[in-house]
């Protein structure tokens, strides 16, 4: 597999200071599913969901079933999303989002506690699919 997209970002998550500890924890655990894939990642306004669809379309791949894994370990919450990219039912790529969110806020802003999520987005595609896409649609001619 070759990594065609790779981006690491730190994203703020704001939660009201008035929320109790359990409510904050639940909100942090839900954040990757609710907002983690829709954060704007580049100047074009694309988010991870859009990028995955664009890459799949560009390489003639279909998206498989999303697999989520969220664990609360020690002082942080770790979340992982993996979306298989398929061609004729075989996995030929994958889109992955990995997030780590500390349970302790990194600061405050107004009436909110601010938590900083470290998020890693990447998309990998099989080398054979990449090679096929570079030769398809090329017009041959002789001089």
A few lines on this structure:
This protein has helices at residues 21-36, 48-58, 127-135; strands at residues 2-16, 62-63, 67-73, 76-87, 90-102, 107-109, 112-125. The chain has three helices and seven strands; from the N terminus they run E-H-H-E-E-E-E-E-E-H.
Q: Describe it for me?
A:
- With 143 residues, the chain is an alpha+beta fold.
- Strand 3 (67-73) and strand 4 form a beta hairpin.
- It starts with a strand and ends in an 8-residue tail after the last helix.
- Strands 1, 2, 3, 4, 5, 6 and 7 form a seven-stranded antiparallel sheet that branches.
- It has one domain (2-128).
- The longest helix is centred in the first third of the chain and has 16 residues, at 21-36.
- The protein contains three helices and seven strands; from the N terminus they run E-H-H-E-E-E-E-E-E-H.
Defining traits:
seven-stranded antiparallel beta sheet; 3 helices; single chain; 143 residues; alpha+beta
